[in-house]
Design a protein that fits this description.
255 residues, 15 strands, Fructose-1,6-Bisphosphatase, Chain A, domain 1, 7 helices, 8-stranded mixed beta sheet, alpha+beta, globular, D-Maltodextrin-Binding Protein, domain 2
């Protein structure tokens, strides 16, 4: 079976489930940190995703945000965020998504991000470009931060971790956004909506699909300090490439 099509179909099915559950009793709770929420919808979405992926690729391992790691018997692994943007979801703010990445031999080679409330599906496979709803996309051509719309994220309880950078970029960029879904932020860099996105303290499921989609759309992805990007590195700076060096310089104060 085609991993990319499996990721797309599964993300869309999970997204349809999230839409059906929206507005109902979500039994929301925090996961140890203020603002880090999980709901019955997150868990139901992940159960559906795991079932579909193991049906299609029974030998693969799975790393999911809610249920953790499941071992496999091949070099294939799925990396799953069943609901990225849970706080947005619980408040009826439509900026949330399902993110599914497919890794083979330690390298992410396919990924899909589906935003059900927005009707958008972003996807990419290594070497084949990136798409939005089946149409090829590319990063923006903007060449300076001063003309750029950039985006970041942070947990409310950890504002100080990124607050200085948020303030600094607010004084440099045309505008800064903080939308609350790292995977979808990355998709919007790939789509040319944002010129750049940066964030600390992320997990593999936040960035695996989005990082690939940005690169396949012609963008640049590194860690915030400019070192090589890895999905478990904990930080990400993704851009259209043209403003990457300028972003790195502006974020150099980060610790």
């Amino acid at each position: 079976m085609d991993p990319l099509q499996t990721a797309i179909d599964t993300a869309r099915e999970a997204g349809a489930l999230l839409l059906r559950l929206a507005g109902g009793p979500l039994e929301t709770r925090e996961k140890g940190v203020r603002g880090d929420l999980v709901t019955v919808a997150d868990r139901a979405s992940e159960r559906l995703i795991v079932e579909r992926l193991l049906t299609a690729f029974p030998a693969s391992a799975i790393l999911g945000e809610e249920e953790g790691a499941r071992g496999g018997t091949s070099d294939e692994r799925w990396i799953v965020d069943p609901l990225d943007g849970t706080t947005n979801y619980t408040h009826g703010y439509p900026f949330y998504c399902v993110s599914i990445a497919y890794e083979r031999g330690g390298e992410v080679v396919a990924g899909a991000i589906h935003a059900p409330a927005l009707g958008e599906t972003f996807a990419a496979s290594r070497g084949a470009g990136a798409t939005r709803n089946g149409t090829p996309i590319s990063v923006s051509q903007t060449s300076t931060i001063g003309d750029s719309l950039v985006c970041t994220g942070f947990m409310p309880a950890k504002y100080e971790r990124n607050g200085e950078n948020f303030a600094r970029l607010s004084g440099i960029a045309q505008a800064v956004r903080r939308d609350g879904s790292a995977a979808l932020d990355l998709a919007y860099v790939a789509n040319g909506t944002f010129e750049a996105f940066w964030e600390f303290d992320l997990k593999a499921w936040d960035v695996a699909a989005g990082g690939l989609i940005v690169r396949e759309a012609g963008g640049t992805v590194t860690a915030i300090d400019g070192s090589n990007f890895a999905i478990d590195a904990g930080s990400i700076l993704a851009s259209n490439g043209r403003i990457h060096a300028e972003m790195r310089a502006a974020l150099r104060v980060a610790r």
